[in-house]
Write the structure tokens for this entry.
Amino acid sequence: MRFSAPKPVMSRPIRVCAVQYALRTISSFQEFADHVETFVDVADDYDADLIVFPELLGVQLMGLNNGAGEPAEAMRHLAGEHAEAFDGLFKRLATDYERIIVGGTMPRLEGDRLLNVASVYFPGADPLHQAKLHLTPAERKIWKFSPGRDLLVIDTDFGKFAVAICYDVQFPELVKILCNHHGVELLVVPYMTDDRRGTCRVTTCARARAIENQIFTVTAGMVGSLPLMTDLTSQYAQSGIYSPADFAFPMDGIATEAAANVEQVIVADLDLATLDRARSHGSVQTFRDSQDDTLHTRFDGEVKTVHRHLPD
């Protein structure tokens, strides 16, 4: 069989940095801010366009209150006490360094509901928020989180991206809606798991979503511990940046991967134009061949698309 050559397409490059961040006991918000900025500064040295921090990055601030109270009470206190300062920090960093930053996630209050929310910061702009839709048993029973309802798609100069927080990436239908109906080509996955099994689930599913939808996926996981918090005594992660497994991509679909359970950053250059070629001329064309009538995808919430331009 002879395949036709793909037509030339305009390059759409982006350099992505995932931060594998280590929880540790801190004595002040400034100590937290300084440590976060260290990683933004490193990513800036690499000239990364997009920087991704792990899920529940903000829980490190619970140590300032000695983790007082029951876990759910401590989470609510964190949301009420530190969310504004957390936003202020990342808004400043995004503006000062002229980068897009996914600031991991932070608990936030919406009326009486406690949500696990990822925030995306652009230079000189208010943050965009994506709440976690699917909750694990521990998140429901111990921390008393409520599920989010809506999806956010961010349309930029390089293409559209979205955030799927940890457990959310384990639901193919959710990602299929984002990709098939709303044009998402890059999926960012902040996560936090306490053992290798949890990381295996997130990593395996992130790689599967990249192959199924012919997109790039970026996972940023948490390591380290907060000894005062019984539910955060140990974390395990192996962050990675993943692609389809086809010509023009790494043979194993791994653009780069962190060492397991070590605080570090990973960086990869991605060109979203290669996804166009893979979808039209790849050896398999899973994006085209996946049909809604066989997947039964349905979503009752709102999908909001926000347009943002990158700094010159």
Notes: DSSP finds eight helices and 13 strands in the chain. The CA atoms of residues 57 and 104 lie 5 Å apart. Helices lie at 29-45, 71-97, 137-141, 172-182, 196-213, 273-281, 286-289, 292-295.
